[in-house]
Write a structure and sequence with these properties.
The complex is a heterodimer of chains A (341) and B (248).
Chain A lengths: L1 H9 L1 H13 L1 H19 L16 H11 L10 H17 L18 H9 L1 H12 L3 H32 L4 H7 L15 H15 L11 H4 L9 H27 L17 H20 L7 H28 L4
Helix pairs in contact in A: 3-4, 3-12, 3-13, 4-12, 5-7, 5-12, 7-8, 8-9, 8-10, 8-14, 10-12, 10-14, 12-13
Chain B lengths: L1 H5 L10 H15 L21 E4 L9 H5 L5 E10 L9 E12 L8 H5 L5 E4 L13 E2 L1 H6 L19 H4 L1 H12 L1 H14 L3 H18 L3 H17 L6
Helix pairs in contact in B: 7-8, 9-10
Classes of the chains: A mainly alpha (341), B alpha+beta (248).
């Protein structure tokens, strides 16, 4: 059984199909993740969330929302820079989707194994903020502009801890390729534990915090703080443009950063410990299970904490997260020099 | 201020425990069963005296208009006319009474304050637990007399009085007792002064009545007006009861 599966996955055409499938599945995945977030958030607030669309626990709610967005009127403000304004959804979606090019979902299931993989991930995940800045500037709206500037400031602040924690992992794995990073965890500490165990634990939490900020999700959603900025950079967007530039981009980035965190800290497609590698569970399933756990963590945090104030947000990045991630690098380096692993 | 700082609720806790507590709360809610009533599919059993809609008992209404006048929204419409009933005895006046023609409540305006129910002196308005009367047309929200009567079928009879509460019979039985209790409070000084005198006078009802008859006859003998005589006789009787001598 396992051999047949391995044969199937060794076929080039199957792999090519799966690679294309990974990108094609992203948009439906946002619908699923959006529904999961609606339901989890509702139950965390002692509600039940959508119950009707689709019949079973409102599974089609986000699909219906999508259809609603398509049918809404598409408005571009008169004073807006029309070309830039309409380019924004593509840029934000692009930035989110590019991450998946280098993330290995199975042993051979990676679209392109770049040797600068993690560097590429960090670069690609920052593209989205260009879209946000474009939205803020082209909308000709003060709320949009302020939101966009906040998003830019936030990205500068939180990109640093994100990169610095990744540096520690690169030091542990001796490679920037995401496939190599996963493979380095195959025999980590002799029993194949993920990098989460050890100095990676601190890095993992810094990475998740910085990811949340990068995604502008609560408690770091100052750029789209609806109480003060309406919807920040996307105030002037309507219909499907709004859905793509805000919701789809957010959920795809969320899946992307969760996939990267899975690869860096949880051992990607490997089983959590080498002793479990005999189980007939394919790599992508391990990957999905780990990624779902991280997505759940992100949703859990989102529905628990209130929004930070802008100055608190900046203080937290520069005074807490960046020093902590520097300490993380130092500890990892020291442990590596003393040949602990 | 010192108390605030010393109170245990303001003790500093370990850094970050508050964040974990928050996560624990949301997780607890996620794992516990939701209390939502899935309304159109299932209906909650409301308390039988819930305040969902106002019902009208038409036979009790006297068209006094108190409810319509007290309504803060002026959402009660009442129309009526006067009719007269032929007197039972020849030569007496005809009895006039009000007849209710229209009674309507506009639930689009009503704010469910319940003042009309409180103010109705004849128990014609009641709260009913019914609540499903949403309409597609706002005009339909004005419930006319038939519909208001229809809400009555779920109205329960009034609750029995509490143990020891003053019921309708208190006017007959309890009033003298209440007066006796309140007397020393209101007229404390005169009673305290008069009481020993009254005791020494020791006037019984019969004696007092005798004083009254005697004074009346004396006055009549003097040729006073009968009404004056009666008044003076009564005053004398009161004085005799109190034990004071009075003028003259």
């Amino acid at each position: 059984m396992t051999e047949i599966l391995q044969d199937i996955f060794a076929n080039d055409f199957v792999i090519l199909g799966l690679k294309v499938g990974v990108l094609l599945i992203l948009l439906p995945a946002t619908l699923v993740l959006g529904w999961v977030e609606l339901k989890l958030g509702a139950h965390m607030q002692h509600r039940v969330g959508p119950m009707y669309p689709g019949g079973f626990h409102g599974w089609a709610q986000t699909l219906a929302d999508g259809i609603k967005f398509v049918m809404k009127e598409d408005i571009i403000p008169k004073a807006a820079d029309k070309f830039v304004f309409s380019l924004v959804p593509f840029i934000t979606m692009l930035g989110s989707a590019l991450i998946f090019v280098v993330v290995p979902i199975g042993p051979k299931l990676v679209i392109e194994d770049l040797d600068v993989g993690i560097f590429y991930v960090m670069a690609a995940s920052s593209i989205g903020v260009i879209g946000v800045l474009m939205a803020g500037w082209s909308s000709a709206n003060k709320y949009s502009l302020m939101g966009a500037l906040r998003a830019a400031a936030q990205l500068i602040a939180y990109e640093l801890p994100l990169v610095l924690t990744a540096v520690a992992i690169v030091m542990q794995a001796n490679s920037m390729s995401l496939v190599d990073i996963v493979e380095a965890q195959r025999n980590y500490l002799g029993i194949g534990l993920p990098f989460l165990v050890g100095p990676g634990l601190l890095g993992f939490f810094i990475f998740l915090t910085a990811s949340t900020a990068e995604l502008t999700r609560p408690p770091f959603d100052m750029p789209v703080a609806e109480a003060e900025l309406i919807t920040g950079p996307f105030t002037e967007y309507t219909g499907i443009r709004f859905a793509f530039s805000l919701f789809a981009a957010e959920y795809i980035s969320m899946i992307g950063l969760a996939a990267v965190a899975t690869t860096l800290f949880l051992g990607g497609y490997l089983p959590p410990i080498k002793a479990l590698s005999g189980l007939p569970v394919p790599g992508p399933l391990w990957f999905m299970a780990k990624m779902s756990t991280i997505l759940f963590l992100l949703i859990w945090v989102r529905w628990t904490y209130p929004r930070l104030r802008e100055d608190q947000l900046q203080k937290f990045a520069w005074k807490v997260l960046i020093p902590l991630s520097l300490v993380n690098i130092f500890v990892t380096g020291a442990l590596k020099l003393t040949a602990w692993f | 201020m010192d108390q605030l700082i010393e109170s245990p609720s303001h003790k500093r806790t370990t850094y970050g425990t508050g964040l974990l507590k928050g996560l624990a709360i949301t997780m607890r809610h996620l794992l516990s069963r939701s209390v939502t009533v899935h309304y159109p599919d299932e209906r909650d059993v409301l308390p039988s005296r819930s305040r969902g809609v106002i019902a009208l008992k038409t036979e009790n209404c006297t068209v006094c208009m108190l409810c319509a006048r007290e309504c803060p929204d002026w959402c009660i419409y009442i129309e009526g006319h006067k009719e007269s009933r032929q007197p039972a005895v020849e030569g007496k006046r005809a009895k006039k009474f009000n007849v209710l023609d229209r009674f309507a409540i506009d639930y689009a305006l009503c704010m469910y304050c319940g003042i009309c129910v409180e103010v109705c002196p004849y128990d014609a308005l009641f709260w009913s637990p019914e609540y499903e009367y949403a309409e597609h047309d706002i005009v339909e929200l004005t419930h006319e007399i038939d519909r208001l009567n229809g809400w009555m079928y779920k109205v329960l009879p009034p609750v029995p009085l509490d143990e020891g509460a003053m019921g309708p019979e208190f006017k007959v039985a309890a009033l003298p007792a209440a007066a006796a209790i309140s007397a020393p409070v209101v007229e404390a000084a005169p009673v305290a002064e008069a009481a020993p005198v009254a005791e020494s006078a020791g006037v019984s009802d019969e004696e007092a009545a005798a004083v009254r008859t005697k004074v009346y006859e004396e006055e009549m003998a003097k040729g006073s007006d009968p009404r004056v005589a009666e008044g003076r006789a009564k005053a004398a009787e009161m004085r005799a009861r109190k034990g004071t001598k009075g003028p003259g």
